[in-house]
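Suppose you are handed a protein chain with no further information: no name, no annotation, nothing but its sequence. What can you learn? This example shows the usual starting point.
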Amino acid sequence: MSVLDQLREMTVIVEDTGDIDSIRRDKPRDATTNPSLLLAAAQLPQYQHLVDDAVAWGGVDVSDLQADMGPCLERLAVNFATEILSIIPGRVSVEVDATLSFDTAATVDAARRLIAMFADQQIDRSRILIKIASTWEGIAAARQLEGEGIHCNLTLLFSFAQAVVCAEAGVTLISPFVGRILDWHKAARGVDSIPPAEDPGVLSVAHIFNYYKRFGYDTEIMGASFRNTGEIIELAGCDLLTISPKLLAELDANDDHLERKLCPDHARKLHLEQTKLDEKTFRWMMNEDAMATEKLAEGIRRFSADLAKLAEYMRQKHNAAQPAK
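A reasonable first move is to predict its three-dimensional structure. Written in structure tokens, the prediction is:
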């Protein structure tokens, strides 16, 4: 058995891509998308019909440079997710506009709009995870949405404080970003690499996993943003891992023995102290964690920038197709 086959026996594999052809080939149970992945996928020829539909559905005058492309962007995310759901048996994660990351009410409204669009396609909300940045405001929005039966994936998660508040809010799933944690620590230490067993991103997810299992939280943990297969191997046994097509191929080509590293039964025997955080304590802990603060802000900016690029691509493509006046 390949390492990937062995991993599937202990962890749910999720594909981290907007490329529907890759998902069709790799057959994951679940899939995740984000603005960066959609930006790449939307420019591929085979998906232009999804872009055209989103522009037409949005009803936006794209020739107006000041026009709000938000409706078109939301529709495009739903279009890609709908295509993905026709292939996979499980769930797909769809991200709300990153610029809403500090606005609880607007995040809730955006999530409801997305769920309503899926309902129009006869897709049950149980198959959708609404991705929201793990800010205090985003977690508050997720708490409200989970109460309405709208399941959430709290993304851009870099710290134990974020994980604790997400669990207390009852969110369905969190996505700790392993590789971006590694990136920060490599830069801070001035090194080119850190062994997978000592990788700060790996250690962070392992700590969160043990804490959740020790205290019986239902929130699922999905390690994300991997830089190498070594990180993935060190997290074998995590609830879910979302992996890029490239790293999936590397795991499939490796036939080494895979040892389970994370185990709920082991975690339940650990001597850990349960933590409760109010807003003030959460914000202070984030302030004291330079890595988490910087990577969260950077991630929100990056997703926002890619949304703006995606909107501009849709605008230019539509305008180029219009007959000259």
